[in-house]
Design brief:
The chain is an all-alpha fold. Helices cover 81% and strands 0% of the residues. It is built from 4 helices and no strands. The longest helix is centred in the middle third of the chain and has 43 residues. The radius of gyration is 24 Å and the shape is flat. 2% of the residues are buried.
């Protein structure tokens, strides 16, 4: 009976370790992916202007005229941030492409098309995020 209990405990322990490995691996993969495959766009607001506008409108009970002025201010601020980071975009793309070439060099011929498809998906996501950001906050 003691032997069966020990085996059960060992099996549970192995299962827990396995699940923790999956969880930690997923988190690490997500964090690594953001750093290597394309860091989040610096112009992407951590606190989006539309959300800021909505929350300030609600908390401060802004009038419609104040809401219009707030949208103009946040829109102008976003434009200034984009202008500030625009010169870095070319360099960032260059660094990204260099890393892709280095990775392709270590892949087998069978892995390269899969990698290229993966990179294409990331590029599409980046384009979608950029298009989403380009929508004025008043239109959202």
């Amino acid at each position: 009976m003691s032997n069966a209990k020990g085996r059960l405990e060992a099996a549970v322990l192995v299962g827990v370790v396995f699940l923790l490995g999956i969880l930690l691996g997923g988190v690490a993969n997500h964090l690594w992916g953001e750093r290597v495959w394309g860091m989040p766009n610096e112009t992407k607001a951590i606190f989006p202007a539309s959300r800021l506008n909505d929350e300030l409108t609600q908390e401060l009970q802004l009038t419609p005229d104040q809401q219009k002025q707030l949208r103009a201010i946040t829109s102008e601020t976003q434009a200034k941030w984009r202008a500030l980071y625009a010169p870095l975009e070319g360099r960032r793309s260059e660094i990204r492409e260099q890393s892709h070439e280095q990775i392709r060099a270590i892949l087998t011929p069978e892995q390269q098309p899969k990698f290229d498809a993966f990179i294409e998906r990331l590029a599409q996501q980046r384009k979608q995020e950029a298009a989403h950001q380009a929508i004025p906050s008043a239109a959202r």
